[in-house]
Every structure is written in structure tokens, then in C-alpha cells.
Specification:
Elements: H1 3-21, H2 29-36, H3 40-46, H4 50-66, H5 79-91, H6 93-101, H7 105-119, H8 125-129, H9 131-151, H10 158-171
Length: 172
């Protein structure tokens, strides 16, 4: 790992850890680099703002949960996909709330859309021709339900939310 990669890893790890106990408003570049044990120069050599770090952390979290799963068309209709969405939101609540606070939901939407569409290279001509609709139908409802769940303070447990989604599916 080169010096730049090391600094980025330290900074993103520090931000994630800090978001567990401190609100984004309280995180400064100084407190972040102190926690990361890197210099301010290391920060500015890799990022322009905390917003850039949030985007990077989101990409990493998304890849960790969903990497290569989008390639299987059946994944989108599976219980595993629902559980992965719920787990992703549960494990990354502070990050997602921070992204919301910084007005980065359009970034999340664009990133998610690109990730899914790049993976949906399926032999089925209908799905290939209409992959945008397919992606919207199967991913946006899960995303919106989970997003509402964290915005409302996660009043239900993850397993209760899963059962709610499954019940809603049965009514559709």
C-alpha cells in the first residue's frame, strides 16, 4: 500500500469511527486528521472536502455489501436483496444521515443507478432493453423504505422491517 492509499484508508476509517459518536457538524479537518494520525497535507493531497470523503466512504460501503451481487438477475427478486438493503442501512445509518444532511442524496442515487445498470448485462433481451425500469422497480422501493426507516429513527428492528416489506410484497 503506497502512502496515498494509506492516508486515504486512515482518513476514511477515522471518519466512519467519528460518525458513530460525533455528529458531522462537530467534525473538523483538524479533528479528523488527528484521529487518522495523518497530516493536513495528507488530507488535502487526497480530498478537497469532507464531502469527498463521504462519497468515498459511501462507495466503499456500497461495494462491501453489494459487490458482484448485481450480476445475478435473480438477486433483485430475492429475500437476500431485501436483507442486504436493510443491513446496509442498519450498518451505515450515520453515514447515510450525514450524506442526507450534506445534500448528497442525488450523488447516492446516481452512484447506485450506475452500479446496477453496469451490472445488468443479461442475455434476456427484454431485461436488457428495459434495464432502467427493471432496476427502478426492484431497487428504489427497498432503498426508499430503508431510508425512511433510518430517518424515522429505526423504530422497528431489522427483522421486523424485513417482515413489513415481505407483507407489502404480498399485497402487491
Amino acid at each position: 500500500m503506497n502512502k496515498s492509499e494509506y492516508s486515504k484508508k486512515q482518513i476514511t476509517t477515522a471518519l466512519i469511527e467519528m460518525l458513530q459518536t460525533v455528529s458531522l457538524d462537530q467534525i473538523t479537518i483538524t479533528s479528523l486528521v488527528t484521529k487518522a494520525k495523518v497530516s493536513r497535507n495528507a488530507f488535502y493531497n487526497n480530498y478537497h472536502s469532507i464531502e469527498d470523503i463521504l462519497k468515498e466512504v459511501y462507495r466503499q460501503a456500497h461495494q462491501k455489501t453489494f459487490q458482484n451481487k448485481y450480476k445475478d438477475i435473480h438477486y433483485f427478486t430475492s429475500d437476500e436483496a431485501i436483507q442486504d438493503f436493510i443491513s446496509f442501512f442498519d450498518e451505515n445509518t450515520q453515514l447515510l444521515l450525514a450524506l442526507n444532511k450534506w445534500g448528497l442524496l442525488p450523488y447516492i442515487s446516481k452512484y447506485n443507478t450506475q452500479s446496477v445498470l453496469q451490472s445488468l448485462n443479461h442475455e434476456n433481451h427484454f431485461i436488457q432493453s428495459h434495464k432502467e425500469y427493471f432496476m427502478i422497480y426492484y431497487t428504489i422501493p427497498y432503498f426508499n423504505i430503508c431510508y425512511y426507516w433510518i430517518l424515522s429513527g429505526k423504530k422497528e428492528t431489522a427483522s421486523e422491517l424485513f417482515q413489513i416489506i415481505k407483507t407489502i410484497q404480498n399485497y402487491a
